[in-house]
Amino acid sequence: AETVTNRVYEEIIESATQSSETTVSSEEELRACSDFSNIKLTDDITLSNQEQVMGDFYGILDGNGYCITNITTPLFNTVHDESIIKDLSIKNSEIGYYKRYCSRQL
To answer: I need a labelling partner for 58 at 20 to 30 A (CA). Which of 7, 37, 49, 84 fits?
Structure first.
């Protein structure tokens, strides 16, 4: 049987997929995105502010072949299982991975 939590996540991801794509080409634009965004990078991004970019991420991050550099803290507190992160390069960064229940940190 499907749990209520799984249905909620699926609805959130479906909503993000159907929402308009937010194109991002700078650190400022990335930080302005919501936790439920459908993000598509349009340029490489170098982080200068080492604060976490977002809290819990439920959306889609399409790197579009671009790179985020200089990450020293997780981009997101939690990346939920139904979220999608694809076609993204990460350079000059330190990233930890911590398994928490059904979620992953990136």
So the answer is: 49
pTM of the predicted structure, to 2 decimals: 0.72
Instruction: Collect contacts of 98-104 with beta carbons under 8 A, ≥24 apart.
Output: 103/56, 103/78, 103/79, 104/78, 104/79
Q: Which residues touch 27 (CB under 8 Å, ≥6 apart)?
A: 45, 46, 47, 48, 49
Q: What is the pLDDT of residues 36-80, one digit of tens each?
A: 889 999 999 999 977 888 888 888 999 999 999 998 888 888 888
Please give the radius of gyration of the chain, using alpha carbons only, rounded to the nearest integer.
14
Place of tokens 């299982």: 81
Residue pLDDT, tens place only, 90-100: 998 876 655 54
Which residue bears the tokens 């398994």? 99
